[in-house]
């Protein structure tokens, strides 16, 4: 049975052991045993990534329109793509919210923040954090996610961009699945740094950061300009050879996947065992202290550029000083 007791403090209901260690696959010198464990954990078990690939494959075969249909822009197949994306977002974000915050299926176990989702606060549209987050996620979020996907499918259908199949290039087909989350992490760090430029933060990114206490619906709750910047990660399919399964995996990773990483819990427990990785304390620290941990744990950028918060009191002091200087 996995240890779920964790640690509590004045600031947190739960946090992992601190200071946070370096789990980056790019740390130097490289450790073959660490890389082997990372690969096995992420790709040789029923991890969140493997589940997304399975869902992407099934969705491509049964739910999304074919490439032949996508050769010209038409309302029917575009609406079908939007409807599938809307359904996936509601199932994932809505399902997680129902289980963790309505059914209270895990109580406070492995929950970072003690508080529940906010109600009766005029900071939020509709005076309700969940309703506000749903509005932005299902409105601008799903619409722009679909728009990027539709353009990519149209480009693939008309051979305007390189495509591949498993039969034609099995090595790159599999390797692309491994590399897409790494590309997404690289893109996310630099897009996120842009969003924290004070003027852009005030006008755009602050909407997402109202979610200090995050929940599943807050993952894709963003200003429309931020949605556009965030989702330009999908433009990689306009350049590099890929297959619709790669595109859909990437769409799920950027959309419903954001709901998973913003659940507010570290893991999903099944029979008291950690069965599915969800949020990370690394990103939870970003939502609490803002000017730190802009990326994620797989990329070393925060450590290289001095914006890493390891959860210690010293790191909090440094981060608050950086924030005060940036927003002076």
Automatic annotation (TrEMBL):
Its main location: membrane. The chain crosses the membrane at residues 50-67, 79-101, 135-157, 169-190. InterPro entries: Fatty_acid_hydroxylase (IPR006694), Sterol_Desaturase_Related (IPR050307). GO terms for cellular component: membrane. One of its GO terms (biological process) is lipid biosynthetic process. It is found in: Membrane. The keyword Cell membrane does not apply. Signal peptide: none annotated. The keyword Endoplasmic reticulum does not apply. Keywords: Membrane, Transmembrane, Transmembrane helix. Residues 178-307 form the Fatty acid hydroxylase domain. GO terms for molecular function: iron ion binding; oxidoreductase activity. This is Fatty acid hydroxylase superfamily protein.
């Amino acid at each position: 049975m996995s240890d779920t007791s964790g640690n509590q403090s004045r600031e947190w209901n739960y946090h992992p052991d601190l200071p946070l260690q370096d789990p980056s696959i790019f740390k130097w010198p490289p450790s073959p045993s660490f890389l082997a464990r990372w690969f096995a954990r992420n790709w040789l078990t029923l991890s969140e990534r493997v589940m997304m690939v399975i869902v992407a494959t099934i969705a491509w075969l049964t739910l999304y329109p074919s490439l032949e249909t996508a050769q010209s822009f038409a309302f029917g197949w575009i609406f079908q793509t939007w409807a599938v994306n809307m359904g996936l977002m509601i199932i994932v974000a809505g399902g997680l919210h129902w289980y963790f915050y309505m059914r209270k299926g895990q109580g406070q176990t492995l929950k970072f923040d003690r508080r529940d989702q906010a109600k009766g606060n005029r900071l939020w549209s509709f005076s309700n954090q969940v309703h506000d987050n749903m509005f932005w996620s299902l409105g601008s979020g799903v619409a722009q996610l679909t728009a990027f996907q539709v353009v990519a499918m149209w480009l693939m259908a008309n051979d305007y961009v390189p495509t591949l199949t498993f039969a034609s290039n099995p090595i790159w087909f599999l390797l692309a699945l491994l590399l897409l989350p790494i590309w997404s992490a690289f893109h996310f760090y630099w897009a996120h740094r842009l969003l924290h430029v004070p003027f852009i933060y005030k006008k755009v990114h602050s909407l997402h950061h109202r979610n200090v206490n995050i929940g599943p619906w807050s993952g894709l709750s963003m200003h429309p300009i931020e949605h556009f910047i965030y989702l330009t990660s999908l433009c990689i399919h306009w350049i590099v050879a890929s297959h619709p399964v790669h595109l859909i995996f990437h769409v799920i990773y950027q959309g419903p996947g954001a709901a998973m990483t913003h659940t507010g819990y570290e893991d999903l427990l099944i029979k008291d065992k950690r069965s599915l990785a969800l949020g990370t304390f690394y990103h939870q620290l970003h939502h609490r202290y803002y000017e730190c941990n802009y990326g994620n744990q797989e990329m070393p950028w925060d450590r290289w550029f001095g914006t890493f918060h390891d959860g210690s009191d010293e790191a909090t002091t440094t981060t608050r000083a950086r924030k005060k200087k940036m927003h002076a």
